[in-house]
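Researcher: Next entry in the queue.
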Amino acid sequence: MALAIKHLPDDAPDFYSAIVAPTAIDSAAIQVVQEAVNDAVLFVPVKTSAAELRAQGLLRERELPQMWHCRGGESDMEKIVKHMSVIPAEFKHSVSMEYERLFALGGPACRKQANQFLVRQSKRFRGVAV
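Model: Structure for this entry, 130 residues:
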């Protein structure tokens, strides 16, 4: 079932003209809005990588996963902290992200897979001088 589209007249106002239409009440505020709407900087897309955001201090690297199993007095956090302690700092963020990705798939099987991934990663660095 197709919906009929109503054609607007040529002189119909657009969205922004309704926002910046002059009124006597707050002309100063409208002037600021009008300048912002006409500001080209707002509409220039800027591609910023996660590495650049981390370098600027706007995005922190994770030292531990933010999601883990914790229910009914049972928690994986002690095991996670133990295994993450042997992983060098430069790899902790990527290991944490992969652990969360595996854990977020859901269910006991995915929790087990995430924990096994963490054990494998910690075994790679056990006994390595940091």
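Model: The CA atoms of residues 35 and 115 lie 53 Å apart.
Researcher: Noted, moving on.
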